[in-house]
User: Which sequence fits this backbone?
């Protein structure tokens, strides 16, 4: 029997300190969003998130950075109980605002054997924190009436 080559036994590289700090911040952010949504209405949470973040620059686009935020927050969300797609998406949307990247929080519904809702974030025309074709599965979108920026103004 042949001994395994070094490439077969090599451990994956350890995440950088910056990545680990980002993951810790994502955990904390998700817990805060969870706590806020338990205490206040969606409208009030949206108003708070808008008030505590800078306005995005509509001319900016950074898909790589946006996707990195989505991956980081999804990774943290999978390790915490009761963290729904809405909580993850609100945090991704808020973090993109802090990066001054424009984004759209999508909240949609599908009817197939019952009603199911789902949320995700899009930046520069691409889905950030979900499957690229998620919009095809959830055809009824309420983003116009549930847009956090619009709710914060009303």
Assistant:
């Amino acid at each position: 029997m042949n001994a395994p080559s070094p490439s077969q036994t090599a451990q994956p590289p350890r995440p950088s300190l910056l990545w680990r700090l980002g993951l810790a911040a994502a955990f904390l952010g998700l817990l805060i969003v969870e706590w806020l949504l338990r205490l206040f209405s969606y409208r009030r949470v949206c108003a708070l998130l808008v008030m505590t973040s800078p306005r995005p620059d509509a001319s900016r686009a950074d898909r790589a950075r946006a996707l990195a935020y989505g991956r980081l927050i999804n990774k943290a969300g999978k390790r915490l109980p009761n963290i729904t797609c809405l909580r993850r998406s609100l945090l991704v949307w808020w973090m993109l605002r802090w990066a001054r990247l424009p984004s759209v929080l999508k909240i949609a519904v599908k009817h197939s054997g019952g009603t199911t809702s789902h949320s995700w974030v899009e930046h520069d025309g691409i889905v950030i924190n979900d499957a690229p074709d998620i919009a095809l599965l959830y055809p009824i979108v309420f983003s116009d009436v549930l847009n956090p920026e619009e709710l914060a103004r009303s």
About this structure: The longest strand covers residues 115-123. The CA atoms of residues 87 and 115 lie 19 Å apart. Helices lie at 6-9, 17-39, 42-51, 63-78, 85-98, 134-137, 143-146, 148-153.
